[in-house]
C-alpha cells in the first residue's frame, strides 16, 4: 500500500480533475443498501442522505461522514445518530489534513463514529477508500441516482492514490 506524508493544510483538486471524478468505481444502487453488503466491515458512508438511508435500514455505519447539506441545500439529521462525533473543516475541492487524520482516527475506534464536516465531504470518499481495510465498503451518494457501493480492494485503493498523487499539496 502507498503511504504519503500529509501536507500542512491538505490537497487541492483542480477543475480538470473534478470533471474526471464523475465516473464511479463501484456498483450504483437505488433505495436501500443490498443485504449482501451488510456483513462487510467496516461500512463507511460519505454523504448525508446515504448515511440516513443506512440508519433507516437499521445498518449503523462504522463511520459516517456528513456535511449537513445535500445538493447544496441544508440537510440535518445528525442529532438522530447516537454515535461519537468529530467536527472538522474541509472546504470544497479540498481534502484537508485535519479531515484525513479524523478518518484515520475514526477507523481505529471500536465504536461507530460520525464526522461532521464544515465545508464539503464529497472528496473524503477518496480518503475513505484509501484508509478502509480491503473487504470493507465505502458508500457515497450520487444525487437523483442513488448510491455507489465500493467493495474496497487493492485496485480501488490504487485508483484513489492516483487521484491524490495528482492533487496539489497545500502547505
Report on the architecture of this protein.
The protein is an alpha/beta fold. The protein has one domain. The protein is 28% helix and 29% strand. The protein contains five helices and twelve strands. It has helices at residues 15-20, 48-56, 97-108, 124-131, 154-166, and strands at 10-12, 27-29, 43-46, 63-66, 69-70, 73-74, 84-90, 94-96, 113-119, 137-142, 146-151, 168-170. It has a seven-stranded mixed beta sheet with strand order 2-11-10-3-4-9-7, with helices on both faces. Helix 3 (97-108) runs parallel beside helix 4. It is globular and about 40 Å long.
Q: Please state the structural category.
A: alpha/beta
Radius of gyration: 15 Å
- Total tally of structural domains: 1
Order of helices and strands: EHEEHEEEEEHEHEEHE
- With helices defined by DSSP (H or I, 4 residues minimum), what is the helix count? 5
Amino acid at each position: 500500500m502507498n503511504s504519503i506524508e500529509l501536507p500542512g493544510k491538505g490537497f487541492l483538486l483542480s477543475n480538470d480533475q473534478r470533471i474526471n471524478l464523475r465516473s464511479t468505481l463501484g456498483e450504483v444502487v437505488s433505495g436501500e443498501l443490498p443485504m449482501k453488503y451488510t456483513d462487510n466491515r467496516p461500512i463507511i458512508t460519505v454523504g448525508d442522505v446515504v448515511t440516513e438511508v443506512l440508519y433507516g435500514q437499521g445498518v449503523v455505519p462504522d463511520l459516517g461522514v456528513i456535511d449537513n447539506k445535500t445538493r447544496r441545500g441544508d440537510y440535518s439529521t445528525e442529532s438522530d445518530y447516537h454515535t461519537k462525533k468529530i467536527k472538522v473543516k474541509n472546504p470544497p475541492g479540498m481534502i484537508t489534513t485535519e479531515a484525513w487524520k479524523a478518518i484515520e482516527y475514526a477507523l481505529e475506534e471500536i465504536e461507530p463514529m460520525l464526522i461532521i464536516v464544515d465545508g464539503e465531504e464529497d472528496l473524503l470518499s477518496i480518503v475513505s477508500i484509501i484508509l478502509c481495510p480491503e473487504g470493507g465498503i465505502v458508500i457515497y451518494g450520487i444525487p437523483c441516482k442513488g448510491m455507489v457501493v465500493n467493495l474496497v480492494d487493492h485496485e480501488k485503493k490504487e485508483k484513489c492514490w492516483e487521484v491524490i498523487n495528482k492533487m496539489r499539496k497545500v502547505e
